[in-house]
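User: Sequence in, structure out. Go.
Assistant: Echoing your sequence, followed by the structure tokens.
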Amino acid sequence: MTEAFEELFNLPDRMKKIIVFITTYERPEMLLNLLKEIKKQGKNFQIKLLINNDCSSANYAKVIAYLKRYFKDFYYYEDNIHRGKAYYYHIIHEFYQLVRSESFDYFIQIPDDIQLVDRFFDRAIQKFDSIRDEKKACLNILNDYGRNGHAVWVPVDPKKIQFDSYTFILSGWVDMAYICGRKYFEFLDFKINVVDKNWSGKPGRSSGVGKQISERLFAAGASIYQVSHSLLIHGLHESVMHPHERKKHPLISNHRKDKVTASLATMPSRELSLEETVKSLLPQVDELHVYLNNFTHIPEFLNNDKISVFESAKEVGDLGDVGKFYTADKIKGYHFTVDDDLIYPSDYVNKLIEQIEKHDRKYIVGLHGRIFDNMPVNSYYNGHTAGFTCLGDLNQDVFVHVSGTGVTAYHTDTFRIGVMDFDTINMADIWFSRKANNENVPILLLKHSKGWIKESQKYNRTQTIYHNCHSKDEIQTEVVNSVEWNELNN
């Protein structure tokens, strides 16, 4: 069968050989689950497994039995002494030496504590092959919220780069979860040098292996890439190599298994600021829902496959700010409610999802809100104990009673809301927060710096809800005082 014929019918190439290298320690259950995923997803490839067990005390009998039953080609090695983080370099060096005598099309290294996204092997290979760069060494296949787009170990300013329909980060640094070809090992001469124990032996530092590889590849002029969305799934479980570091900086993959939808409501006088808002958000979300209150036309910049437009004249009329919740009861996954007068930073969605996941989806998260102390208050806008703005500094996370729905996000597994939960228009923050309070879903405002969220300069500030209501807030005050607000855990 010719290559052209295979490509025409999109048939998998069953002859490609992939070496999958896994290091494991004290995680037989996780490794066994990973092996089951590899077996399921690797049917169209010739898989050879290389596994190093770093002298675990746990029982790996089920792992070994599974390997013998379901994999024809594997090498399982169990160390006699525990090498740990300080001597991790020795493990990697030994297996790199082993690879020298192997023939393969692709080499993939992964840890034992991850899961694979759907069609992992197909997607990893497609992305790696799409990178047309003669100096390409490897592609990092794990991307986490904490380090996404950050410089690590080498003086390279990570930047986004496009090949075909794929977006990558030219990172300059190597994580120990990557796909590569033989050239990667040739750059490194199939060896890892000794890592100074003054580095690897310190609790707050890494094993030094990724650092060494990154520095050597950088010195050789090699290019190191990273996927923009992770092909590996990693959660909040404990790290056996970096337990203290992981508690401070959780490794949460941005694999985007769930859809990201943002929604907003707008009015004709905000068309210019709306365009800035849409431009800042659209690259970050899967869908954007826009409710147009009283528009006589649909702005041309809303003509995009990602955008769903709802015209008030064709729907249920002018909903004011409640329009941003017009489709909320149908949305599944991450829901971001946004405003048409704000410009969102390029890492906005990733940062908020990171915090949603960090807290096991238990909280609604936001950047703007209010706390009430002594109830009843004499004024909603002026009687609160503390107010926090998305445009200013917030030095620490804080729980609030009311969230500003222009900078709010949640996962629909945790919280569901619909238009029927809003008794009036232009009081969305209060009705939204009342619903969260009554369902015992805490609202957490996230630490942020002034200037991270920017305000558009292309709208009339005398037409805001705050401007029109802050000095005549009797209705808002009455509603707030009718709610039995939960105690905050600050």
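User: And one key feature?
Assistant: The mean pLDDT is 88.
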